[in-house]
Amino acid sequence: MHGLRAVVLAILVLTAFLGATGVGAGAPPVEGDQDVQPGDNVLSADSNYPAQTTNSTTCDFPINVTDATGTTITLDERPDRITTTNPSAAQTLWELGAQDRVVGVTQFAEYLNGTENKTDVSAEFGVSVEKVVGTDPDLVLAPNASAVQVEDLRAQNLTVYHFPAATDVDDIATKTQRTGRLIGNCEAATDVNTEMNESVDNVIDKTADYNRIDALYPLGGGYVAADETFINEIMQIGGTNNVAASEGDGYPQLSDEVILEADPELILVTDPEASILDEEPYASTSAGTDNQYVVMNNSYLNQPAPRSVIESTETLATAVEKLQPEDTEEEPENESGTCTFPLTVTDATGTTITLDERPDRITTTNPSAAQTLWELGAQDQVVGVTQFAGYLNGTDNKTDVSAEFGVNIERVVSTNPDLVLAPNASANQVEDLRAQNLTVYHFPAATDVDDIAVKTHRTGRLTGNCEAATNVTTEMNESVDAVTNQTADLDRIDALYPLGDGYVAADETFINEIMEIGGTNNVAASEGDGYPQLSQEVILQANPELILVTDPEAPILDEEPYASTTAGTADQYVVMNNSYLNQPAPRSVIESTETLAAAVETFQPTTYPSSGSGSSSSSAENGDQTAVNETESDTNETTSTENETVSVVDEDTNATAGSTGENNDENEDGTESDRTNTETGQESESDDAPAGETNTEVPGFGMVTAIVAVLVFTRLGLSSDSD
Q1: Cα(166)–Cα(168) distance, integer angstroms
Q2: Whole-prediction pTM value?
Q3: How many CB atoms within 10 Å of residue 4?
Q4: Contact, 92 vs 179, CB < 8 A?
Q5: How far apart, in whole angstroms, are the C-alpha atoms of residue 576 and residue 679?
Q6: How does pLDDT run across 73-113, given as a tens digit for each residue?
Q7: In sequence order, what are the beta bridge partners of 496?
Q8: At 607, is the secondary structure helix, strand, or coil?
Q9: Across residues 130-147, what is the average pLDDT?
Q10: Rounded mean pLDDT of the chain?
Q11: Which residues contact 486 (CB under 8 A, 6 or more apart)?
Q12: Distances 631 to 140, 199, 218, 394 between C-alpha atoms, Å
């Protein structure tokens, strides 16, 4: 028997050796490593990606792949335990609908829904190797910012795939497709890339005829985002000229003199207060003197991943659009007539007001009116806002007319307004304002999208911005149509938006329509209109599968009765941006419905998500939250400042205060409440630095036969022992 073992083993080992060298196996050789430095060409996805079926949707295992370090790794089967060492990898996994297989993330990925259930593998610098090992991962995904720790991780016998730098959209598409291939989500990766590329094409078309604006993204200490960076491409797609692109690659440190000579007209910031514009040399640039900046979501702007591309380019393009020179020629007609003055209109109280000329000084008494004016590009006409509009760019230069409840009449008067816009939540103060000889227009309740469209057109007519109002409502309606189509074939999910103390958003509310458009059934809609208070028994009987929250930690799911609902037991919730969800205005409709629809898509009972938008639901666009921004590259590490904002619900019916762990104010007039929502902090970082990757994914014949040899040898050995 021992002799037979020796003969069989010799044959198999010889066969394995011949197969490993490619003799008779036809296995392609492993390509060499390619360090992609700024200016080098990155291999295209077509030349650099695995052999799959013709539609690139299957993901067979085992696979062999070679990463940016030239190291070949083997995955015998689909990995079920994945740890990430940078947030861009985590964001991509969430986009691919693979979050349930993630076991470890860094602290800067905490904005993603559900990361509180993952192990935080962060260390003071980079990741803790011990914590990564503790997650027992089948696969570690390490973007370029983690390059220095890859060998340390591999020394612990971990399977680590190291990505190259992603300096443009093509790189991100390649990185996304590779991630999908590694984890067995090929179809989802294709869908995500399709969505990203279509979004980029739309933004490019949108900005094609704009005057490009000279812009700069300062990181502090003179460091800026320059050429050969993902951020630079975001700036180009979004309709700007990055004035730092000509100063070098990566993240160079520029002198004050160079920045002043570059003289940006627009500054990109992640701090809503844009405090850097008060510092030299930025304060002396055109952007500083004109106070022109755009607040970007730091998690998206600084993480090279598909959702980052979509959200950042759209945000920037919108800012560029608003900074275009105004066309002062003909203004089109809308349902209220042309934008000519004098104008006489009747408001929701039945009061007729007259405006002899276009108002140049406008004060708002609720944030939804302010948001609408910003959407219309009329922010320069605004002189007074409430504190809950503080998330809007430039409100720090406006008078805060807030009082402990509602607005302070004296402060409103002090703004010397030509016009006061008072949405329904301010109904009880309209007469007090008129008693001060102020011209006040009071809006009716807005309970659905049509109401918001009418309200937007009326605001445009009152302020002399008719064309902008038409454009804004067109964008909103097109977005609603797109979301409606997106969710048409999805299984609708029973959902609830609890406000605290049993109060919920029910029927005949703007929020209810958001929930319907977004693909859910509002289980509270059958319980009444407005914001009724429901008993625990009713909530348990309604049994929502999904809870809408504005606090990323979703503490309400730990409270009864919500903890005992299907949503609570399954920990299913979607984090909504509180400023958008709770303010009936066009941008609120667009952002809230898209976020909710993406969540519904993610929770569909399918193996793979049908499109790449799934993670937006889980990772609400929290550009208005407290944020610490950390950008990493292979040459420098910088940080930016923190911010915190609050906003209110600006609804129309008999609303009672309450919130998901938030502050609340209640109007006593039986019409509306202002529910304030303070968002929590988040941090992010960038993975933007040089590297490269190659691969082969055809398992070698020699490897297969070697495995067979070992198995046969072991089997024969066992048989012999048993003999």
Answers
A1: 6
A2: 0.45
A3: 11
A4: yes
A5: 10
A6: 999 999 999 999 999 999 999 999 999 999 999 998 999 99
A7: 547
A8: coil
A9: 92
A10: 78
A11: 519, 597, 601, 611, 613
A12: 21, 24, 11, 25
Question: And the tokens for 653?
Answer: 């019916």
Query: Which stretches of 487-612 are assigned E, i.e. beta strand?
Result: 493-496, 498-500, 503-504, 520-522, 546-549, 573-575
Closest listed residue to residue 437, CA positions, set 459, 457, 413, 458: 413
- Residue pair 401/369 in contact by the 8 Å Cβ criterion: no
CA-CA-CA-CA torsion sign (343, 346, 349, 354): positive
Catalogue the long-range contacts made by 465-470 (C-beta closer than 8 Å, 24 or more residues apart): 465/339, 465/376, 465/377, 465/378, 466/331, 466/332, 466/333, 466/334, 466/336, 466/338, 466/339, 467/327, 467/331, 467/332, 467/339, 468/375, 468/376, 468/377, 468/378, 469/334, 469/376, 470/332, 470/334
Q: How many CB atoms lie within 10 A of CB 415?
A: 19
Write out the H or E segment, with its range, that includes residue 179.
helix 169-183
Is residue 189 predicted with pLDDT exceeding 70?
A: yes
CB atoms within 10 A of CB 641: 16
pLDDT tens digits, 311-332: 999 999 999 998 887 643 333 3
Q: What is the token pair recorded at 130?
A: 């011990």
Instruction: Tell me how far apart the alpha carbons of residues 695 and 69 are, in angstroms, rounded to a whole number.
Output: 11
d(CA 422, CA 410): 16
Tokens linked to 581:
């969800």
Distance from C-alpha of 568 to C-alpha of 543, rounded to nearest angstrom = 9
Q: Is the CA virtual torsion 456, 457, 460, 463 positive or negative?
A: negative
Residue 571 tokens read as 């920990």
Judged on CB neighbours under 10 Å (0-12, 13-18, 19+), 85 is buried
Geometric angle at alpha carbon 444, from 497 and 531, rounded to 5°: 25
* Alpha carbon 567 to chain centroid, angstroms: 23
The tokens describing 296, both together, are: 């970007």
Bridge-partner residues for 646, per DSSP?
678
Is it the case that residue 641 has pLDDT exceeding 60? no
Contact 582, 558 (CB under 8 A): no
Q: Are 276 and 629 in contact (CB under 8 A)?
A: no
Q: Which amino acid is at 454?
A: V
Residue that is written with structure tokens 């919920």 in the block? 504
- The closest of 314, 225, 321 to 267, measured between CA atoms, is 225
Average pLDDT over residues 712-716: 39
* CB neighbour class for 481 (10 Å; exposed up to 12, middle 13-18, buried from 19): exposed
